[in-house]
Amino acid sequence: MPAGTASNYFSNRDDLLTQVGHRFYERLEPDANMVATALAGPRDRDRVTELMHDLVERVSGFRSGYLALLELRLESTHRPALRRLLSERIRSDIDANIRYHTDSGLPGDATTVVLLDLALNWLILERLTLPDVFPEDGIHDLVTEIVERVLPGPGRTA
């Protein structure tokens, strides 16, 4: 980018990084059809497993965005405005995920959602940054195991 181009649109680096933080979340939002489809059918552990597989694939599929968010998180340790933005946005997303999960009748509670979020985010991080740690052909089974251990109990009965 030529010198001065960013300054035509952003007053400073904090403003630029804050706008990047907003844009990331716009790109990652599931569409209304995906949300409606997710609510179709039984609301059991198998449905949660399907949703978590979809989440891991959707987020992993936006590799550049996820890695940019990781860089923004690191940058936020030095920029209070960016830290506030990311903290508010991520907390809001977690709260929305908890509401969606509990209001839709999926098994588990708020702690289930938080544990899945933490475990799957780290798996995605490993997948995108150090893919040889957990080979691609084992990701599906890892996601399934994470759900089954966080949310024990019977799955669907055929």
Short summary of the structure?
This protein has 158 residues and is mainly α. The chain contains 7 helices and no strands.
What does it look like?
- This protein is mostly helical.
- It has one domain (6-150): Tetracycline Repressor, domain 2, CATH 1.10.357.
- The chain is 68% helix and 0% strand.
- The chain contains 7 helices and no strands.
- It has helices at residues 13-28, 32-38, 45-60, 63-75, 80-103, 110-129, 139-150.
- Helix 1 packs antiparallel against helix 4 and helix 1 runs parallel beside helix 5.
Main pleated sheet: none
User: Could you say how many structural domains there are in total?
Assistant: 1
Coarse structural class: mainly alpha
Low-confidence stretches: none
- Percentage of β-strand residues: under 5%
Keyword list:
mainly alpha, 7 helices, Tetracycline Repressor, domain 2
What's the topology here?
Blueprint (H helix, E strand, L loop, with lengths): L12 H16 L3 H7 L6 H16 L2 H13 L4 H24 L6 H20 L9 H12 L8
Helix pairs in contact: 1-4, 1-5, 3-6, 3-7, 5-6, 6-7
